[in-house]
Amino acid sequence: MNKLELQKTANEIRKGIVSGVHAAKAGHPGGSLSAADIFTYLYFEEMNVDPKNPKDPDRDRFVLSKGHTAPGLYAALAEKGYFPKEDLLTLRHLGSYLQGHPDMKHIPGVDMSSGSLGQGISAAVGMALGAKLQNKAFRVYTLLGDGEIQEGQVWEAAMFAGAKHLDNLVVIVDNNGLQIDGNVADVNSPYPIDKKFEAFNFHVINVADGNDFDQLKAAFDEARTVTGMPTAIITKTVKGKGVSFMENQVGWHGKAPNDEEYAIAMAELEKAGEALCQK
């Protein structure tokens, strides 16, 4: 996909996020929206995956370590063709397979059940080690929140990945600066994030704007050249990106828009989509 197509796809994924969370009357729009461009780049450009063969043993793996941003992952999977987009409206409903956190047993394209913060990266490290032991060429990607990396288990997993030289592992940190209780720097500062990963023997790539596809492309292309060590891509993003009243507002970490807010958000995204179509 070219940059414009990626931007259009990300805009559709944002519509899916807002629609799903609104229909559920619950969920986590802020961090789903900040990571929408990352989901888009991974599923439509970077990863070797096929919705027609979701269990391909040679596919690349993705673990959503910050599992509460499942609306973003689900919207990307639906856009990719793993399941019908209209199913996004069943998010968190009784009997729906689209639960509040990813479930590998029931959702096509989900490689790991996640949501207990800090644990997803451990699973991803295990997958990457498994690939090495089996001489498989697939790569493993995992997305963490900047609040999530306050969890100690993250650094145990990072230490292990560095020690085992897992160069088939790419850890992405969605550094949108906000977590449920406020600014990450005020709650329990994880900074400097890059220096911490470097200390655990990672190749670190800082992305100044993680909502920009040129910068994401450069980062993921660089990660593919790294040998002998895992890669950490630290992306500076905007929480709630794409919906004006949600951007950089901590209150939108974990609440759904009401009908009026939903209408405003969708109108903004429709307008953004139309502007992209005129380019």
TrEMBL record:
SUPFAM superfamilies with a match to the protein in the record: Thiamin diphosphate-binding fold (THDP-binding)
EC code: 2.2.1.1
InterPro entries named in the record: THDP-binding, Transketolase_N
Catalytic EC class: transferase
Tagged with keyword DNA repair: no
One Pfam family from the record: Transketolase_N
Protein name from the UniProt record: Transketolase
Domain Transketolase N-terminal: 7-263
Keywords on record: Thiamine pyrophosphate, Transferase
Reported cofactor(s): thiamine diphosphate
GO molecular function: transketolase activity
UniProt family annotation: Belongs to the transketolase family.
CDD domains for the chain: TPP_TK
